[in-house]
Amino acid sequence: MRQGQGLAEARAIHPAIDVAEEDPAADGALLEAIADWCDRYTPLVALDGSDGLFLDITGCAHLFGGEQVLLDDILLRLFQMGFKVQGAISGSPGLSWAASRFGAGGVIADSAAQEVLEALSVACLRIEADTIAALNKLGLKRVGDLISMPRAPLARRFGSQVLLGLDQALGHEEEPISPRRPVAFLSVERKLAEAIQAEEDILELASRIAQSLCSSLEARGAGGRVFELVLFRVDGRVFRIVAGASRPLRNPQRIAGLFAERLKSVHDELDAGFGFELLRLNVLQHDPYEASQDNLLGKVSGEAPLADLIDRVSARLGDNVLQAFQFRESHIPERAVFAHPALGHDIGNEGKQSPAVTTGRERPLRLLSRPEPVEAFAAIVPDGPPSRFRWRRVLHDVARAEGPERISPEWWLDQEAGQERDYFKLEVASGHRFWVYRQGHYSSDYRPTWHMHGIFA
Question: Which CDD domains would you find in this protein's record (predicted)?
Answer without folding.
Answer: PolY_like
